[in-house]
């Protein structure tokens, strides 16, 4: 009887050890397959693209759980990234990031390039910029990132001249030093550009707003940014808090962004006006 009791006790202990080992294996497996959550701050068409990516097979295969957080203002979005409310942001150009960092202690770092899309000048009254009369009314976006970019485009079109030290993150109409046509400026919300066309002579409109208003920068604009060597500052980048730049989970995002599925989504939804850019960040400097 004692032998039987000892045998039963030994079997019970063995069973408990086996169950414990099995639980450990399950926990290890669950731990290894657990998805890494990343909060991506964005807005407009960038947010649309990242919401598509969040549901993609590529994101699942990379073990990423992507949550897209909408923040409409660029400076606010960068501050949210610094504060840790956002892990990665996707909205800004290389030039905007550089100027923001100058004013904020280089607390942000780009980790990848994404695309270039042209901001452009549109009109429902004129076919060419040289038809523009003196005192023409010009609509430009009032949000920080696009306001400065619009002024740079008008300078490239030789309609105005800006201060030599014009800041792409904080520059404004107050930085205009020459305005030969005495243009008047009307600051409007970014998304309202197409709707403003009947009431102004020209409007500088970002590509997302233009597309939402049925406009295509490649065929409908009077003047636009060009995809040439001069647009490095206008290439969009993924940005993180500097201390997180080597996070391996974040480094997966560039590869996912440039997969064929994402390229096809962008091609099918943005009329050829979002040009994918995959190049070393060192080439932008």
Automatic annotation (TrEMBL):
InterPro entries (UniProt xref): Lipoprotein_NlpA
Membrane topology: Lipid-anchor
Keyword tags: Lipoprotein, Membrane, Palmitate, Signal
Xref: PROSITE patterns: PROKAR_LIPOPROTEIN
Record-linked Pfam families: Lipoprotein_9
Localization in the cell: Membrane
Signal peptide: 1-20
PANTHER family according to UniProt: D-METHIONINE-BINDING LIPOPROTEIN METQ, LIPOPROTEIN
Family (UniProt): Belongs to the nlpA lipoprotein family.
The protein's name: Lipoprotein
Organism lineage string: Bacteria, Pseudomonadati, Pseudomonadota, Gammaproteobacteria, Enterobacterales
